[in-house]
Amino acid sequence: MRNLITLILLTAAITLSSTTLTVKQDGSGDWTTIQSAVNASADGDTVLVWPGTYYENINFNGHGITIASLELTTGEDSYIGTTIVNGNQTGSCFLLNQEEQDAVIRGFTIINGSGYEEDNTINGGGVFIKTNIGYENRTNVSIKNCQIKYCGASVGGGGIYVKRAELFLSGVSIHDNSSVIGGGIVTPGFSLIEFDPNNRCNIYNNYAGSGVDIRITDIDQDIFCYLDTFTVNPPTQYFAKVHNSSVYNGELVFDVCEGWMVEVDHDLYVSPEGSDSNSGLTIDEPLQNISWALHKIASDSLNPNTVHIASGTYSRELTGLILPIVYKTDINIIGDEASPPVLFNDSGLAFISCTFDSKNVAIKNLILDNSCSTIGLVSTAYGNNIAFRDIEIMNGYGCEYYVANFYMINNGEWQNIVIHDNEADYHSGSRISGENVYMHNCRLNNNYSTGNGLYDVGCSHLSISMFGNALVENCTFSNGSNAATYGSTAISVSSMNDLEPHLTFRNNLIYNNTVSTDATVRLESRGGADIYNCTFVNNDADVAALQVEGYEVNIANCIFDNYSPKEITFHDWTSDPVETTVNIDHCNIKGGETGVFVPELDIYTLNWLEGNIDAPPDWAEYDPDNLFPYRLPDGDLSIDAGRADTTGMYLPIYDLIYHDRVIDGDQDGAARIDMGCYEHDPYPVAEEDIPRYESGLTNYPNPFNPSTTIRFTIPATSTVKIAIYNMRGQKIRDLAGITYQAGEYEIVWDGRNNRQSTVSSGVYICRMNYSGKTLYRKMLLMK
Fold first, then answer.
1. Which residue pairs from 666-674 have beta carbons closer than 8 angstroms and sit at least 24 positions apart in sequence?
2. Residue 107, phi-psi category: left (phi > 0), alpha (psi -120 to 50), beta (remainder)
3. 607 vs 605: CA distance, rounded Å
4. Dihedral sign, CA of 443, 449, 453, 455?
5. Between 566 and 683, the higher pLDDT residue
6. pLDDT at position 719
């Protein structure tokens, strides 16, 4: 009994000692700004705020206090809409990062917060909550009867960011916020979130690359989300995502009364002249916001839908563009082919971001221009069967990590990608990781890595981390520069986690790149590498033009003519070296065999084979503005000097300038391939003869098993040839070779080769020729 009396008296004493500090903008209260009142408060106090718009970024400064509008004392909801905290895009509206206990935010409209910067990331546009003292002493915060909207953060938690904290949400509406991760709410780990089951919250129409509305990481117990309204009902992982490491198994459990919208199972159309009040179902009634179209469109694995983007310029100022753009499983995003739409970044967020397990997506015909977020213009992760085609990425500056980051994209395809005039601390071009990487006909130019990152490393054009095989062909890498003092390269490819994938690097042009250390190109493939018909010219590096490592590296039909001390070198590890054999044949290498450096270790072997020469070309018609410089002049010794037999090299059908391989030679098979990335031909390729991918050529389903229907359209009577090739360039099946009238046709491929044997799972290319034109379609057979 005595203890109970003591507790009552103590509680009364604490209540009597607490203070209410009033905030009125007209000067009739204790303070005119909320922050001034907070600074004067003590634990247990209440800061009571009269109506008005307060342009502030409020820091609780470790005080366990209540900050509330008159809704607290009157119960009138009208005070929520008239008492506004406007972050003015200068930070989080509310900041709690000093172990505040029993802190309360109540009865406000919270808008225009831009997040709190910590450890080179910006999180928590509306509210930032974090405990630094450990899991057992989590901050305890309540947010009640608030509207959190129009806030954003360049990384996580457009509305709310909470880490190592206990958060209670009651009657809170979180909508129209954006970030890369968790547009509405994000917790990167070790937090408890409790939703009031009686005074329910609303979470809808937020935008993010992962967990559009909610993204939760590493929770050790289920979170029960009692919501009146969620964007869709039932929620999907596009809108609500849990990502747990192996030791955590908590889930999001939803109890939702209604969905804010219903997804549409139909292609949608977007135009700068459109309106989001339109249906978007036809080209004559388009939407205006790309992200809204992607929210609205439904995934359909049997008949994938497409968001069609009309030509024009899209930006936040011009069209209300909401970034990042987030792709969905089984959804294609395709811009106008004749005049690709321009996405102009005036928001500081990533253009395209997706960090969950999406699959079967094609993104085509876009120009991404200007500015950069902390983590890059493009930041995607964890996808399968994702294709990026005909995309230009340019003028990105201020990136701390990457300009274009594609992390753990399995069965990824990059075709006709142009990345130029970008700057970043680490990788100023593209960083790719995953299994079965396929890169074709890409150009990376004028990219600059500052080397200012945490580890002073960088790659100016391309970095690939291989968890499976990779193929890079018919690409150009030029005029890159890298100022990093360690690990400086223009191109870097490496095997990951002691895996042994195979790298094929063929028909590529690498020229005019400058790196401060290491090699211009570093290829480390523990499963071996084939480097065929590449031209390395006028590169300047501290070590060599090419540095290699791998079980067996084959270099053939290549030209090396650079400023580096050596043309080729083994990667000389001081610890854990990898046994490497390099076979070189039919190459034109400046300095001959002396242009190759072999460290004095028994595990390194150089086999200098037949056909190698030392005759630097007198390059023809060099023009810095020419897309195809460093072509071989007539009579050069590298012409017809490649391998007599290219069996097993699986070279592309075309060289870098769309000349056929092999052009010259007699009809009896005596033709010899040229060294380098070009097949010598004095005649240019006409624009109309350049092969196009997929225009008028589709297949359904894709992926498929065991058969797929190939659909094609021809505008006039033509002889049509259709054949199937594997990823090594080998023709495995002829499907058509007859004359068709103008129209649309279908033909079925049953997954068999010309011998009627069933082919294995993998990626296959459908090639169609008609009227002198060539079309391609990539198809995935999955068993």
1. 671/640, 672/640, 672/641, 672/642, 672/643, 672/644, 673/533, 673/557, 673/640, 673/642, 673/643, 673/646, 674/557, 674/632, 674/638, 674/639, 674/640, 674/641, 674/642
2. left
3. 7
4. positive
5. 566
6. 85
**Mean pLDDT to the nearest integer, 683-693:** 57
Helix (H) or strand (E) holding 378: strand 378-394
Pair of tokens at residue 175: 């909508």
Half-sphere exposure of 86 (CA within 13 A, CB side): 10
Predicted pLDDT at 692: 52
The share of the chain scoring above pLDDT 90, in percent, equals 48
Q: What tens digit of pLDDT does each residue of 438-485 get?
A: 999 999 999 988 877 655 677 889 989 888 899 999 999 999 998 877
Answer yes or no: is pLDDT of 510 > 60: yes
Pairing relation of β-strands 240-243 and 160-163? Answer: unpaired
CA dihedral 669, 672, 678, 680 (to 10 degrees): -90
The burial class, CB within 10 Å (0-12 / 13-18 / 19+), for 289 is: buried
Task: Return the bridge partners of 111, or none.
Answer: 86, 149
Spatial separation of the C-alpha atoms in residues 37 and 126, rounded to whole Å: 20
CA dihedral for 306, 310, 311, 314, sign (positive or negative): negative
Whole-number pLDDT of residue 341: 92
SS3 778: strand
DSSP designation for 299: P
Residue 685 pLDDT greater than 70, yes or no? no
- Kindly give the residue spans of alpha helices, DSSP state H, lying in 646-750: none
pLDDT, residue 102, reads 94
Contact status, residue 175 vs residue 203, Cβ threshold 8 Å? yes
DSSP label at 202?
A: E
Nearest residue to 564 (alpha-carbon basis) of 507, 631, 490, 635: 490
pLDDT-wise least confident of 144-158, 206-220, 624-638? 624-638
Outline where 176-315 has alpha helix (H). 290-296
Mean pLDDT score of the chain, rounded to an integer? Answer: 86
Report DSSP state, residue 750.
-
Q: How far apart are CA 424 and CA 454, in angstroms?
A: 12
Q: What angle do CA 343, 92, 97 make, to 5 degrees?
A: 135
Three-state secondary-structure class, residue 134: coil
Write out pLDDT tens, residues 242-296: 887 777 888 899 999 999 999 999 999 999 999 999 999 999 999 999 989 999 9
Q: What is the pLDDT of residues 183-193, one digit of tens each?
A: 999 998 778 89
Beta strands in 446-551 (DSSP E): 448-449, 458-466, 470-473, 476-478, 481-482, 488-495, 503-506, 509-511, 514-515, 519-524, 529-532, 535-537, 544-549
**Angle (CA) 486 490 495, round 5°:** 80
Q: Which tens digit of pLDDT belongs to each residue from 194-219?
A: 999 999 999 999 998 888 999 998 88
Q: CA end-to-end span of the chain, whole Å? A: 74
167, HSE (Cβ side, Cα atoms, 13 Å): 27
Judge contact between 91 and 57, C-beta under 8 A: yes
Which residues lie closer than 8 Å to 187 by C-beta, 6 or more apart? 161, 162, 163, 193, 215, 216, 217, 219
The token duo for 117 is 């910067």
SS (H, E, C) 431-459: EEEECCEEEECCEEECCEECCCCCCCCEE
Q: What are phi and psi of 6, to 5 degrees?
A: -60, -40
Looking at residue 764, its pLDDT comes to 84
Evaluate whether 213 touches 179 at the Cβ level (below 8 Å): no
